[in-house]
Amino acid sequence: MQDVDKIVNGQKLFLKEEYQEVLANKKQFESSMGSINPAKVDEVQEWTKSWDYREKNLAREAITVNPAKACQPLGAIMAALGFENTMPYVHGSHGCVAYFRSYFTRHFKEPTPCVSDSMSESAAVFGGLSNMKDGLRNCNAMYKPDHIAVSTTCMAEVIGDDLNAFVVGAREDAEGELDNLPITYAHTPSFVGSHITGYDNMMKAMLEQLNPARSEKVVEEGRINIIPGFEPYLGSLAEVKEICAEFSDKIVMIGDHEAQWNTGAGEYQLYAGGTPLEVAKTAINAETTISLQKYSTVQTAKTIKNKWKQGYATCNPIGLAGTDEFVMKLAELTGKEVSDKLKSERAQLVDAMQDSYPYMHGKKVAIYGDPDFLLGMVSFLVEMGAIPTHVLCNNAPRKGWEEDMQAIIDKSQWAKDCQIWAGKDLWHLRSLLFTEPVDFMIGNVYGKELYRDTKTPLIRIGFPIFDRHHLHRYSMSGYKGALNLLTWITNGILDQLDEETKDIGETDYFFDAVR
Amino acid sequence: MGPETLEALQKEAIEEVLEVYPAKAAKNRAKHLGVDSPEGVKGACDKTRSNKQTVPGVMSQRGCAYAGSKGVVWGPIKDMIHISHGPIGCGQYSRGGRRNYYIGTTGVDTFVTMNFSTDFTEKDIVFGGDTKLKKALTEIDELFPLNNGISIQSECPIGLIGDDIQAVAKVHKKESSKPTIAVSCEGFRGVSQSLGHHLANDAIRDEVMTDTSARSEFESTDYDVAIIGDYNIGGDAWATRILLEEIGLRVIAQWSGDATYKEMAIAPKAKLNLLHCYRSMNYISRHMEQEFNIPWMEYNFFGPSKTTESLRKIAEFFGKDIQDKAEAVIAKYTAMTDAVIAKYKPVLEGKKVMLYVGGLRPRHVIGAYEDLGMEVIGTGYEFAHGDDYKRTKEDIERSTLIYDDVNEYELEKFVHKLKPDLVAAGVKEKYVFQKMGLPFRQMHSWDYSGPYHGYDAFAVFAKDMDLAMNSPVWNHTKAPWEKEEVGA
N or C terminus of chain A: which is more exposed, having fewer CB within 10 Å? Predict the structure, then answer.
């Protein structure tokens, strides 16, 4: 029973003797293996750690187990929230939107606005036009957006709803209410690609539909657009903007979702920050667009390069080389020298890398996540002398990514010890970790179960991270971002070293006050 | 605030939110909002329209049928593998979010927090996913040999492209001789999670209740009961079990938090079904009553008043022996819960609460708040039916604003108008209200604490509400330079 002076929640409550008895009693009614045959569980568990299991596991074709990816509309919502007073609108069931909002909210610890038009069985039969007619009007009346960005769920895609016709139809029926409201739309079927595909499709659609035709393009001298991509680290957005400001005030971020998920206490505002629509509507006029995530903006790039005939570049400012490349690109495009501030930030970073490298050098790492995230992170690991033993990308693009990653790995002195796993999930990674163990693992919250199973220390960098607070507020881009990465990883390794050397009189050689 | 003023304010709040809608939507929403009082004339609890299509274009907090079936009913059954059949998203978003605690070796003989998905590509949509599903079932059996069955939870595209998952399941069941159960819980079906609960119950009725092999050898006693509709969030069902066992009953099954397939299958051997979440599990309770003659009884284990009342009701069914034991148990715990109330009531009394949750909590938790002297002034459900609102009438203690399928816009307006001291709802709402400097507790997941069912859990509940209400962090919202000067 609870002690009123020391009330405990379930974490400790169920460890009390009387509850342990309850839990033991329950087993007689269970048929699950552990209660009737613990030896069998041990046997199978051991087998799951074997090479035999690994081979069977890697041969899997039909079932995906514990993937590190989500579906298209999630990314579309992030893209939409990068624009001022924009309401993401999902044409489909509200069940999906409840999931998207919960997912982002759990990662950012912030509200996530997004509506749906609640399609259900009648829409499945008759199509979702009437939902959209009512939905756009209701959304406009209640949330007073300056722009609505419509994406779709797999349901709307399977029944083949025509968004263009629907938006036109909804406007016609709205008695003038929607006349001056930009409504952009993208098809984002969940059965194609992943959340980064959705980001790309929505970004492309918004840019195409908000901007005039190429004939009306008026090039603004010196203007550079920066598209951040599916970026879960809000500090990275701030950092990139800060670096750009060192070069020119004509560099603008297109799709800046930093403020939306970083509002302060005091009062709640539905919309916050974002690229002003006037800036978004003139994106075509820039001289060049730089995408910070090549594989989150494949289709968007086509519009910019082929339709707009604009200069286009990709940079991945994660780690030292990535940031150097970005900074030099900006210097080249603006004709301006690298500022003293950036020079000193770079020097500080290199200084820190030289201070900490012994703890990362030669350490084997397993890392998983989105394609561009991995390109940047692996590049940084290689710079530090770590060995990216397993690089796993569930949503690896069909073209180019593996070659790009191989090129980075080839820079490592341990290139032959590194393996790229495209299209594999975290249950595959479990087998890899048991058969070819590593020193630590980098990835999102779902690595937690791998940590429990394999005891491989998990350093949380990626998306989503639900179980640690405020990491997303930091940057992982730029020199300062690289310093954060260095701090997280090195101290993660030191925590592990302390853990392994803490047993008094047993393992505590190397339990040092100085590291 | 006097009762008349409160009621007037609540009515005014409804008028105000309806003003913003276009006429059609306003007309619709008006039927879902109302005010009711514990006694007297028919109020909102009798008349509120519910279980209807959500107004398009709003930020509804509702989920879908898949969420009801996979996320609530089937997902927590620990020794089975539940396939999210279709594109990747649904399985990923519903992974590990509900805190359905269980004991077992995850990935070996238990699987609750994992995401098994057939991860549809365009090809599967065009050519159908049955072949892939069939293969997935085989792969699962090879790699997870200790699974005690597989359920197939269909996502939206499955029903739309017309895949015959029932047939695939049937073949696999025959070949593997393991339960293989297909649930057509596509997200577009129905208007909320609610239909998913129903469909999940139907699948249990047809596939699990008909499996007599598990119960053929089972020796029952006169005191066997089954806990129905407890998902063991934060360990709720364990905190419930202990009380039932202490009063002399034997809990033979627990649905579906920490449940195994066998527990579900032996449940027809119970003498009484104890139903906690009426909304999600009344269907199967009614079926067991009809088919196996097992009576069912609703109970409420939130807060000492309701827990005691429920224990007495349960004990009464079993007669004097159990009643005597129940009284002893009640006396034993009452001393503790009285001390909890003595400790926390002084700092919580008179605080006003607004609730918005799912199946049973909008009514069941009212008693727990009232035990602490707190006052619930507004409540509503995401996916209730008329009978839930009628049951709510019995639990409200004062003039209460009732809102069905309330959307974020309305809830925010209601809160501004009624100025509660605490909002208790879900994660999507949490930060909206915290930003206003309002204490908030997540009442779907107990905000990463719990359990909240039973006497021991009430201590946790009281402590958590104190933590919510009386943290110094709420004093920091206004900057010192914004505060009014004393005497100015």
Answer: C
Distance CA A430, CA A409 (A): 22
Q: Tokens 């797999």 — which residue?
A: A154
Phi, psi of A513 (to 5 degrees): -80, -15
From CA B357, how far away is CA B362, in angstroms rounded? Answer: 6
Are residues B449 and A9, on separate chains, in Cβ contact within 8 Å? yes
Q: Which among B56, B159, B188 is the nearest to A134, CB-wise?
A: B56
pTM over 0.95: yes
- Per residue in B244-292, pLDDT (tens digit) is 999 999 999 999 999 999 999 999 999 999 999 999 999 999 999 999 9
Active site residue A244: no
- DSSP 8-state symbol, B54: P
pLDDT in tens, B394-427: 999 999 999 999 999 999 999 999 999 999 999 9
pLDDT in tens, A282-324: 999 999 999 999 999 999 999 999 999 999 999 999 999 999 9
As a whole number, the mean pLDDT across chain A is 97
Torsion of CA A333, A334, A337, A343, to 10 degrees: -70
Judging contacts by C-beta atoms under 8 Å, the chain A residues touching residue B234 are: 9-10
Answer whether the bond into residue B439 is a cis peptide, omega within 30°.
no
Residues 6+ apart with CB under 8 A from B237: B227, B230, B231, B254, B257, B258, B453
The pLDDT of residue A36 is 87
CA dist A450 and A458 (Å) reads 8
**Phi, psi dihedral angles at A344 (to 5 degrees):** -70, -35
Q: Contacts of residue A97 in chain B, CB cutoff 8 Å?
A: 59-60
Question: What is the torsional sign of CA A406, A411, A416, A418?
Answer: negative
Catalytic residue list contains A154:
yes
Asked whether the beta carbons of residue A4 and residue B339 sit closer than 8 angstroms, the reply is yes
Sheet-wide strand order for A364-368:
A419-422, A387-393, A364-368, A440-443, A458-460
Contact residues, chain A, for B133 at CB < 8 Å: 62
Instruction: Please confirm, yes or no, whether B64 is among the known catalytic residues.
Output: yes
Catalytic residue among B29, B99, B197, B276: B197
Query: What is the average pLDDT value for chain B, to the nearest integer?
Result: 96
The pLDDT tens digits for A460-509 are: 999 999 999 999 999 999 999 999 999 999 999 999 999 999 999 999 99
CA gap A249, A242 in Å, rounded: 10
Inter-chain touch B92–A155, beta carbons under 8 Å: no
Structural contact between residues B391 and B374, judged by C-beta atoms closer than 8 angstroms = no
- At A297, give phi and psi (nearest 5°): -140, 35
B83/A63 touch (CB, cutoff 8 Å), yes or no: yes
**pLDDT per position as a tens digit, B168-223:** 999 999 999 999 999 999 999 999 999 999 999 999 999 999 999 989 999 999 99
- Phi/psi of residue B377, nearest 5 degrees: -115, -5
Each residue of B137-166: pLDDT tens digit? 999 999 999 999 999 999 999 999 999 999
Region of residue B303 (left: phi > 0; alpha: psi -120 to 50; beta: else): left
Provide CB contacts within 8 A for B360, sequence distance 6+: B229, B276, B277, B278, B279, B300, B388
The rounded Cα A92 to chain-centroid distance in angstroms is 23
Contact A482, A380 (CB under 8 A): yes
Surface-to-core class of residue B476, CB atoms within 10 Å of its CB (0-12 exposed, 13-18 middle, 19+ buried): exposed
Q: How confident is the model at residue B486 (pLDDT cuts 50, 70, 90)?
A: low
* Phi-psi label, residue A352: left if phi above 0, alpha if psi -120 to 50, beta otherwise: alpha
| Average pLDDT of the segment spanning A27-38 | 90
For residue B81, what are its two tokens? 């593998």
Residues making up chain B, counted from first to last = 488
